[in-house]
Amino acid sequence: MTYIAKPRLHHPSLVKNKAGYTRRDYEGAVSTLCAGCGHDSISAAIIQACYELDILPHQVAKLSGIGCSSKAPTYFVGASHGFNTVHGRMPSVMTGANLANRDLIYMGVSGDGDSASIGLGQFAHVMRRGVNMTYIVMNNGVYGLTKGQFSATADKGSISKKGVANSDSSIDMVSLAILMGATFVGRSFSGDKHQLVPLIKAAMAHKGAAFLDVISPCVAFNNHAGSTKSYDYVREHNEALNRVDFIEGREEITTDYEPGTVTTVQQHDGSLLRLRKLGEDYDPSDKVAAMKRVQEGMHAGEVVTGLLYVDPSPKDLHDNLNTIDAPLNTLEAAELCPGTSALDRINAGLR
Amino acid sequence: MKPTDIANPDYFHKVVDCQWACPAHTPVPEYIRLIAHGRYSDAYMINWKSNVFPGILGRTCDRPCEPACRRSRVEDETLVKGKKEPVAICRLKRVAADYKDDDGIKASMPKAPAKNGKRIACIGGGPASLTVARDLAVLGYEIVIYDQDPKLGGFIRTQIPHFRLPESVIDEEVAYITDIGNIEFRHQRVDSMKKILGEGYDAVFVGSGAPRGRDLDVPGRKEAAANIHIGLDWLSSVSFGHISKVGKRVIVLGGGNTAMDCCRTARRLGGEDVKVIVRSGFEEMKASPWEKEDAMGEDIPILNMLVPKEVRHEGGKIKGVLFEKVKAEYDAKGRRSLVPSGDPDEFYECDDVLVAIGQENAFPWIEKDAGIEFDKWGLPQLGETTLQSTNKTVFFGGDAAFGPKNIIWAAAHGHDAAISIHKFLQGENVEERPAPGVNIVSQKMGIHEWSYDNAPTIDHRLKVPHRAKQEALKDIMAEVELGFDPQLAFKEAQRCLNCDVQTVFTGNLCIECDACVDICPMDCITFTENGEEKDLRTRLNAPAINPTQDLYIGNDLKTGRAMVKDEDVCLHCGLCAERCPTGAWDMRKYYVEMTHAEHACRKQ
User: Which of B76, B518, B581 sits opposite A9 (nearest CB)?
Assistant: First the structure.
């Protein structure tokens, strides 16, 4: 951690966004994580994304579980709502919060321990239900707070800092999320903000269960030779399938691209995802192909990144339950209690 | 761009904007930290070594360091009432002089060794000559200083009013030099260079200043001569007590610092209606902004765009001055000329006129055949850094060298000339200048501890307390500025960003985790593909908009990218180094010290 607060002084060219805030206004408290932690870079990417999206901080709800990653919400968008839940239980608290107030922007922040071990069941169900949220797993493959044991996402055969090889199969969060019904699934790397920031923006604009697996090296316990979650390993094996340009609103595409190099996906709210091809042909809206490509990548030892799967017209929990548009927490007694005559009518119908 | 060569002492010296801007390159942040620690004597000695006159300069310096101060570029207008301001460097220097341990300082001053048999004449007893004397006396040279005035100090003593600079401060700091030993003062005006050269000196240093005040050339000047005074001479006469009165209505002509001293002095000698009238616009005046402020604070209006046309008089007595209104016009090249505005002339009544419209060099005492060549402006032809004239035994410095400048330039010239004289008399090449001494020390004390106060304050610049105006105007000897007390000095010292504590980057340790990029409050670090400087400046996390400030390029990164840091706005808060997991960033203090004559020769 750092002893001094980040100085309030800032670059003279810092500008305000449409909401009237500078990027610095979206910061949180100074991080208490280890120096060089990938999680801090992800926090910085979230700050950048919220700034670029002109988000009103008080419209954001950050929820997390337990762990290094779950501490991270303290370090971004300080002026928002926050909830540190029981270990692995963030998805159910978020589901409840989302049901009560659908107007907030929900951001779940969790780690590989919180989501792939103790919270694996909750993780599966929050994706199944299609809660409208951005669920970010800061994935370092190791239990940092307890000094470096393998987590459930550590690859089989990867070597711990003490020199022991991992004998268990790893859980691939991306495959699991696609399988469970998440409608926006991507993977990125804390060391590549050019890729990560647009992905976070697109995920936040996605109306449905959006999941991002962000590989985030643990500098203290998992950044050595033999680790498959180190800065060097991820940089060497990163196989980016596409690069997302996120465009708000129904803007015209003004930049010229070579034919066949760009795929455009229009999301439900009208925002455009322009996917720049980086090599092979890849169609992220084909769910079966996406699962196949991710599995192939795993087999080949690649870290496949980019926007891996997106359903352009997703349905979320509220659509499925057919709830009214107004947030439930704003409903008054008159709307919630239809009165004796309505009860009589229902009773009569059952006779 | 090529990776930055941080082995070149100039690179990090330049980052210390104040020190780089100072002609004598005083290590400013170092002495400001010492002041914050209450180590006033140590702060004084750093200054004394570098600029020779800390108490004097702490009151009177032109402070080129302050406009250069990084603080004035990085302050947030919303936190400092809309005005970004530098650290009050000059006034902090005075604090060191005010609160030092006088006896301790006196005891620690150097003493002259046995004479080395070589004699040097210094013409003029001002700051340039005194600096030469100090630097060379400690090496065993025998110094003889000539001056026309009865006491040493030159313009410091004769031109700066005592309400800005008490005479006791001059006496003290002149004594620190003369007490070294081997220095003889002769109260004697020098009328012939050839005579001096004939007296067997091994070298001669000319520090005779720019002593001639420019005169007014308009109709009526001669007739009203009794009430028209040349500012330089008038201030000198006031200083020595020959003049103690002035008329009730005074016009001061000119817009430089001498004009400001003239008008404020006039206010104290009976002037009730004192005006400054300048040809140029208010903004273009040569006087320092704070001196204009102080003058206006003493109820002295400054009227601009008025060119004197005629002095009106009656029976040998002055009535007033007639002025033509002008306006500024700029040609295609942006050069300004003042042309009549067409408005009617303005007439101002007065009892006395003080002329402070510039000063000139004058060397009537240097004979044409003395071997010293002059240029078409009447200035000696000199080596730019050696200050050696075409007569190899004669050196120049201060205002006598390149025309009127200021005290801090005189001290810097003094050091340079002393190096040249020493090398010359030791038979070395004067063109080879000694490199500065650099001491580099990491400031890391623990995982998150640094040996300097790394948290920048957001306090705005503090004002120096002044004596009440009524009281100040009554007594010409009463110093107007009272100086910071230790509490105010501490607070002001904390505004210093410690720019000499440098961010040093070691590429092969870096794992490119972005921690420094994320934490930097000024967004001045970027990891990107290298490129040409012009292109690079535009594609950093925040644009590098100040081309006078360097980009620090680090290489040896695994991804082949470059680390690019914009030095312009760095707060030197050390957060990059604190968040760096591998020690690729370190905060190291670069103490850069100019080498003076004492260590300039290889033979020592």
Answer: B76
